[in-house]
Amino acid sequence: MKFPYFKKQLSLIPYGEKLSIGATPDFALEITDQSGLVYDILCNCNGINTIGDIYNKLKYKYNDLDIEEVIDITDRLSSYPLILEDYALTVESSLTPREIERHSRTMNFLSNFDYLGTEKVNYMKKIISSNVLIIGLGGVGSSLAMNLAALGVQKLYGVDFDKVDLSNLNRQLLYSESDVGCLKSEAAKKKLDMFDSSIQFTTFQLEITCMEDVETLIKEYNIDFVFCAADQPSIWIYKWINEACLNTQTAWIYGGNSEASSYFQTIIPKETSCFNCRELNLKEFSTEGYLKYTEVKNHGYATQNNCLAATSSCITSFMIFDFIRYITKFETPRVINQLFTLDYRDYTISYLPVKKNQMCNCR
Ligand SMILES: [Zn+2]
């Protein structure tokens, strides 16, 4: 390890003759550190000091200290997951100084999933360079746009045809009172431009009415990932996006709020089941369920919105984590081949299986 770096997000607590590293109960490492040497070494693992520098700083405090002992301790600590990383590797990147500062805390978070710290910069670069389309800039869409912008996605695209209404302000965090009556596509752009001037947020005042509308956007803007945060027209919006994403092999997530719960599913074409599989499974296994579904598909039956900024933010968090998993590839998205639901009445999380249907063209 050339420039050992102690992951600053971990707590470091010397107590009695022990040293506790990390606060999470199932992770915290408790080691005996009678002299305090391990603590002092970790305090000096700042990504700038070499092992030799650390030895030179501590040799007067610990009279019989040998450089081999410092090497041994740093080696042993780096064999534990997620404590030390080699800063020499993480700084060898094409991130600009602004990006490193702007996203340092995000990279701290990402390093929780990266044992030696060699990947967090690559994860960050993948997030920064992804092209993400959000369909619907209402409650969930607002929360997605703000979260993705804060996360570091630099090329965001948003679609909405509606205007801001006073009743939207209970949940649509992109908008303010001064935006009432304005187009959401314009007000959303104004907000994100103020939030981070480096983001290219392209918005479209557009009502999605067919699969081709979505496919055109994906192709024209090289979209890597689609979030569907629109729920109208009921079912059809998901069907159109499903088909467009299948045609272009684009991963996507649909999600939203329904009565006292929120839901979402992550779909990766060719790999996972899709929204059409869900429809075909219903047709195959539930006569009544399919009858009701067909009724909604044919006639809509839209209800008045009943969600909060909090419920939209809550489901958005899970959707964003599945997006991070997919884009960085550090792990497979969690909510594939199933529908995730979160019930606010008792905080129950459920997973409804959505198997691949043999008749579906997503295979
Ligand atoms: Zn399918």
From TrEMBL:
Transmembrane regions listed in the UniProt entry: 132-153
Keywords on record: Membrane, Transmembrane, Transmembrane helix
InterPro entries on file: ThiF/MoeB/HesA (IPR045886), ThiF_NAD_FAD-bd (IPR000594), Ubiquitin-activating_enz (IPR035985)
Keyword Transmembrane helix: yes
UniProt keyword annotation of Magnesium present: no
SUPFAM superfamilies attached to this UniProt entry: Activating enzymes of the ubiquitin-like proteins
Start and end residues of each THIF-type NAD/FAD binding fold domain: 117-361
A single cellular component GO annotation: cytoplasm
Name listed for the protein in its UniProt record: Thiamine/molybdopterin biosynthesis protein
Protein source organism: Streptococcus himalayensis
